[in-house]
């Protein structure tokens, strides 16, 4: 099994099945890990066609405008094997809207699983969704459009949803390879306020 973590940041599995890709500086320190590849994802990915069984991209697409994001989705499709799984996670603008009436520093742990009450920014809506490096706000329909335009098969699977009491439900739907899907899901973070969708090449 070969898996790619595109936009790995600090969430870098060391298992040799994984390749962690990012342009991240690691807090100013060089990252010397055998499975880390430094790369700016606005450029074509440095891998052969069909190199990976699964690909995770968590909290990256919102840093690109829609045309840059589409190019990256097409690169993801190129480097996946036929039947490979792409799992994308982004801040969910719809969730921020639902919880907005309660969004204040004191409620961040409950609403977002974030423990930062003294933050001078009064709402997580402002601090996270409108983070100054974000170039896109995404909902399920918008993310669906990226998958479809890039040529991924339908159905586009909603992999995670928040129910009325705040627990999580993972839905596999018709994911073609459950072991790959499980490996991708295990690396996710920021679940409470994320939209997570997957599709198959």
Task: State the share of residues found in helices, binned by percent.
Answer: 25-40%
Mean pLDDT: 88
Tell me the Rg in angstroms: 17 Å
Shape: globular
What structural class is derived from the secondary structure elements?
A: alpha/beta
Total helical elements: 6
Q: What name does CATH use for the topology?
A: Rossmann fold
**How many distinct domains?**
1
Annotated CATH homologous superfamily: Vaccinia Virus protein VP39
Q: N-to-C SSE series?
A: EEEEHEHHHHEEEHE
CATH first level? Alpha Beta
CATH architecture: 3-Layer(aba) Sandwich
Task: Please indicate the percent range of residues in DSSP E strands (runs of 2 or more).
Answer: 15-25%
For the largest beta-sheet, the strand count, sense and barrel status come to:
7 strands, mixed
| Count of strand segments | 9
Distance from first to last alpha carbon: 16 Å
Low-confidence stretches: none
Strand order within the widest sheet? 3-2-1-4-5-9-6
Question: Summed up, what is this model?
Answer:
The chain has 201 residues and is an alpha/beta fold.
């Amino acid at each position: 099994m070969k898996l790619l973590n595109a936009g790995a940041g600090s969430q870098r599995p060391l298992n040799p099945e994984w390749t962690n890709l990012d342009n991240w500086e690691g807090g100013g320190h060089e990252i010397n890990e055998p499975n880390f590849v430094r790369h700016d994802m606005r450029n074509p990915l440095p891998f052969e066609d069909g190199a990976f069984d699964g690909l995770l991209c968590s909290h990256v697409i919102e840093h690109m405008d829609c045309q840059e994001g589409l190019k990256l989705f097409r690169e993801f499709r190129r480097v996946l094997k036929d039947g490979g799984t792409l799992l994308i996670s982004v801040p969910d603008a719809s969730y921020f809207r639902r919880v907005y009436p309660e969004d204040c520093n004191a409620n961040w742990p409950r609403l977002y699983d974030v423990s930062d009450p003294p933050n001078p920014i009064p709402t997580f809506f402002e601090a996270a969704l409108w983070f100054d490096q974000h170039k896109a706000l995404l909902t399920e329909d918008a993310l669906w459009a990226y998958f479809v335009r890039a040529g991924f098969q339908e159905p586009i699977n909603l992999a995670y949803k928040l129910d009325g009491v705040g627990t999580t439900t993972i839905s596999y739907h018709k994911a073609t390879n459950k072991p790959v899907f499980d490996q991708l899901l295990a690396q996710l973070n920021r679940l409470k306020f994320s939209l997570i969708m997957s599709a198959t090449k």
